[in-house]
Structures are given as C-alpha cells and as structure tokens.
Model the fold of this input.
Amino acid sequence: MRGAPLVGVRRMDDEFVVTCPYCGEESVIYVEPDVSGSFVQDCEVCCNPWRVRVVRDGDDRFVDLSRADGSE
Done:
C-alpha cells in the first residue's frame, strides 16, 4: 500500500522539514541546490526507505515524500 505523499515545507534554501510516511517522525533533510528528480533516502529514525521527489516551480523547490519499499 502506497503512503500518501507528504509535501516538505521549505525551512531554508536547501533544507526541508518532512514527515516519515512510516513512523510519522518529523525530520529535516538537505537537498543540494542543483538536485531535481527523485532519489531514495532512509529515515534517520526508523531506517525505512523514502522516495524523495524534488519539484521545481521557478525559483522555488518543493519535496514530495512517499514510501520506497516496493509498494509504490
């Protein structure tokens, strides 16, 4: 079952506050300025894998987080 994507809130230019779709813990992730597209990153709390999708809208960037456990 795929978890509902959660939108990361921009904290600073390259840091985003996200909520783990597995354990519900809030974390801050760093996304380098030139990154766009998708990558996999593990939760620092529960170690489950996230699919992080970076979306650009002009000068703004947003992250979309979902489970990356093969259920997507």
User: Anything to note?
Assistant: Residues 19 and 72 are 17 Å apart (CA to CA). Confidence is low (pLDDT under 50) at residues 1-6.
